[in-house]
Amino acid sequence: MEKKEIFTQIEAMEEQMGTMYADLSRLKTIVVELLEENQRLQMENERLLRLIREDQYPEPTMEPDAEPAKPEGLSLTREGYENLARLYHEGFHICNVYYGHLRTEGDCLFCMSFLNK
Ligand SMILES: [Zn+2]
User: Fold this and answer.
1) How many folded domains does the chain comprise?
2) Are residues 75 and 39 in the same domain?
3) Ligand 1 centroid to residue 93 C-alpha, Å
4) Together in a domain, 20 and 5
5) Is residue 74 located within the same domain as residue 57?
6) Do 6 and 59 fall within a single domain?
7) Which domain, by its residues, includes 53?
8) CA–centroid distance, residue 33 to ligand 1 (Å)
9) How far is the CA of 76 from the centre of ligand 1 (A)?
C-alpha cells in the first residue's frame, strides 16, 4: 500500500469517527431525555392509579393494607420517603436542585443529605 493511500484511508476513518462520535453524543442526549420522561410518566401513572383506587374504594377499611395500623400522617410520610429513596436508587435526582433528572455522575451530595435526614 502506498503512503498516500494510507493517509487517505486514515483521514477517511478520522472523518467517520468524528461523525460517529457526534451521532453517539446525540443518541446519549436522547436516551437521557427518554429516561427522564419515562420516570415522569411512571410517577404520573402511579399517582393516577392511586386516585382511581381511592375513587373506587373510598372507605379506608376496604383497602388492602399489609402494614399494621398507624397514624395516617406517619405512614404517608414514610411512603413518600420510600418512594423518593427508590427513585434515587433507580438513578434519578430527588434533591430540589436537579429533581427528576437522571444522575449521570454517580452519587449527588444534595440528594444524599436529603436521604440522611
Ligand atoms: Zn441530586
Assistant:
1) 2
2) no
3) 4
4) yes
5) no
6) yes
7) 1-64
8) 17
9) 22
Cα 37 to middle of ligand 1, angstroms: 17
- Cα separation of 47 and 79, whole Å? 13
Check residue 70 and give its pLDDT: 46
Q: How far is the CA of 15 from the centre of ligand 1 (A)?
A: 38
Ligand 1 mean position, distance from CA 53 (Å): 31
**DSSP 8-state code for residue 95:** S
Mark whether 76 and 52 lie in a shared domain.
Answer: no
Say which amino acid occupies 107. D
Question: Ligand 1 mean position to 5 CA, how many Å?
Answer: 52
- For residue 36, the tally of other CB atoms under 10 A from its CB is 15
Check whether residue 58 and residue 83 sit in a common domain: no
Q: Assess whether 53 and 93 both reside in one domain.
A: no
pLDDT per position as a tens digit, 52-91: 787 776 655 555 555 554 444 455 577 778 888 888 998 9
Rounded Cα distance between 54 and 52, Å, is: 5
Q: Distance, CA 86 to ligand 1 centroid (Å)?
A: 13
Count, residues in the chain? 117
